[in-house]
Amino acid sequence: MDGSVFKICAAALVTALVVLILRQYKPEYAPIAAIAGVAAIALLLLQDLPSVTGLAESFLEFGGMDGGWLKLLLKALGIAVLIQTSADLCRDNSNAALAGAVELAGKVMILTLALPLLRAAAEIAVGLINNG
């Protein structure tokens, strides 16, 4: 995992340099290079994901908690990262309106994902009020 930080930084710097050069000489290829760089960094991150999820699951088991919450959290985190990356790429290519639409869609997705959690919290609150 420690080596991944250097790989990610190197990939980001190389991508930034390639995009900078392409913007001067072949601007139509710059967005493609940026997307390729983002994809490369995402692949580097995915290599470490199993160790992170394994550690999180062991913490949940130690605390006696259900693993469903971890899945929900990881889904929401994945949506947030993908939406933010997509919106940033849209902004980099002068599509602010599209970036806003992508961010709105991400917020709706995360809200939809969180509705069962909000319902469970409401049921707990009602139960405490009725029994209190």
The N- and C-terminal alpha carbons lie at a distance of 49 Å
Q: What structural category do the secondary elements indicate?
A: mainly alpha
Indicate the mean pLDDT: 87
Which shape, going by the Cα principal axes?
flat
Number of domains: 2
Written as H for each helix and E for each strand, in order along the chain, the element string is: HHHH
Number of helical regions: 4
Q: Into which percent range does the helicity of residues fall?
A: over 70%
Q: Note the quaternary state here.
A: single chain
Largest sheet data:
none
Radius of gyration: 20 Å
How large a portion of the residues is in β-strands, by DSSP E?
under 5%
Task: Report what the structure shows.
By secondary structure, the chain is mostly helical. The protein folds into 2 domains: 1-65; 67-132. The protein is 90% helix and 0% strand. The protein has helices at 2-25, 30-63, 68-92, 96-131. The longest helix has 36 residues, at 96-131.
In short:
With 132 residues, the protein is mainly alpha-helical. It has 4 helices and no strands.
